User: Fold these one by one.
Assistant:
Number 1:
Amino acid sequence: MKMLKKILREKNMNSLLASLSSAALGLISFMLLTRQLPQVQFGDWVLYITLGTFIDALRFGFTRTSVVRLLSGAVAGEQKGLLGAGYKIGLLVLLAISACCYTIYFTLGYFGVNLITGYDLFLIWYPVLGLASLGWKSAFALFQAEQKFNHMMVVRLSNIGLFVLFLVANGLFLGWGLLEIVWVNIAVNLISSVWCTLKRWDGMLYIHHSTKAVEREMVGFGKYAMGTLVGSSLLKSADTFIIGLSPILGSAGIAMYAIPLKLTDLLGIPLRSFTMTAYPRMSKKNLSGDLEAVRHIFYTYSGIVTLLFLPVAVFCFVFAEYMVLVLGGKQYVDQLPLLTLIFRIFTCYTLLLPIDRFTGVLLDSINKPRLNLNKVIYMAVANVIINLIAVFVFESLVVVAVGTVVFTLLGIFIGLRYVKKEIQADGKQIFKESLQFVKKFNLSALK
């Protein structure tokens, strides 16, 4: 019992539980939406949410990574200024993005250019969604820096939990359509943000503590971090964007592709959890000049997460058909062989993710965000080129999925070259140290 309590209090486990619980509700909402919306409308919803996630990477790239990094080494009295600066910059970025959205929307309307509904939903409603979610998403920087993953879990569950309750009621009684679902999603985001503001977690009430010096430092670091996060988001989102532009595949193609992609996102939950705990730890060790500890954290996290993914990936590969059917529902039975093949390709991709992601985390933590940005740019360009060929030449979702494996291998190669040059981290040591960890089976090795 004491060992169980120790494990549950461990920060990596807290982070993982926070991600798993929110992902479980996210999966439920996804399954409810696939059954409540026609295939084309579900594709429009996926495009709207994917675009929103992509732009969130842009606006929070300016602030979250730099806020976490600065808060990790902050002394007493600096926290308010950092939180206030982060919120202020995030708000200004959102205002600029909102102006761009409405300018594009009215310009397209003036010239009579028609896009699929998902793009229209984004241009009209994302600025509102962005403002509604600014509070709780800003608060996550504080939670990550202070390793308060229980707070992160409660806030996230309050958000997505309310949305799931609505979807259950909608399926049983209301029968509302796509637009009403968008409105309710905005409302639940606003509720979570108001809560974070009242608890003084998001920095809105500390804007007056912000200083020009802190803002300049955040922007200086953030311009690279933003590029990295946008590029990373583009690696996942470019598939959806380009499929949506295809006159052949369109919204229906997005809906089909979203199902195996969602299953792949579930496999990435542990990875996101461990990167959230690894980043502030690497940053702290780097600020103290302990590069040997930075290398050790990099080796251990990269190898252990890969080893954890292996049995899960094998299981998913074998039972891919059943998992796709459960998630998508009966309306996707006709496309089951195609979606199963895509998901099996994605299971191979997930095994490559840990090393790729942790090379990026290491570069950011040693204050080399420009190198991480360079890596992501190479990967994003490769991804876009492959997607364009896959969609407009081969008109194949399978080729789109294969491209994901190709650009990830490219990212691993480039990332390992950078970390070897900067701190003499040797990729060969990753699994050597990980196997030592397995022999010890000691969770404290990740501290």
Number 2:
Amino acid sequence: MLLSALSVPLNEMVLTAFLVFARVGACLMVMPGISSPRIPMPVRLFLALACSLMVVPLVQPRLETTLENAQSWTILRMIVTESIVGGLIGILARIYFWALQFMAGVIAMAIGYTGSPGGTIEESEPQAIVASIITLSALFLFFVTDLHQEVLRALLSSYSVIPIDSGLRPDAALVDITDAFSNAFTGTLRIAAPFLVFAILVNIAIGLINKLTPTIPVYFISLPFVLAGGMVLIYFLLPELLSFFISEVGVHLRSF
């Protein structure tokens, strides 16, 4: 009799923990830094379990009546919804880093440093060394400035905005993703703008010189000077550009 009386609360607690793990785990699966393939899978799994167990006491009282008479299809719908909500929060936090990674590749092309790709931190595909340095520096500042805590705060706040027993509004989610993509690529375009202007001016100058001296391979001779000019720009502008990027990411994360 005692075991039968304890089995129902225990089942509800386990189910609540699994629902919380679906949202938290999906968020950490795409969150900047933690979702990196450089972090072993067991470490990410234990981190998701630890964060989920911290959230369970906050949502357990609300779900007692909901899970008591829930059907199997209702529980399955809640699991799918929780995974989508967690993945959406992680994507919204990672959008700016996707945009920065793209613009970092554009910067590497603009200064003529696209050869000998190296390993990346966030992705498994190789990337130009300059782009890897930019993305790694931004990711380092992301954790140093405690912006990862803003993602966790947004994850906790999501239980008030989108409770476990409520449905997901796809139209609002698509609007949030569209706005985030627009703001992210607009902000990172400002970061790449000095290098794009540098590339345009340098190519125009090289083209004019090549017209004046067609017998000299001006393009190949100018490559070291173009690369040196791009490195000088990175040396002087990169700290300010990364500060601007982190401030934009902070404003974005504090808005949801």
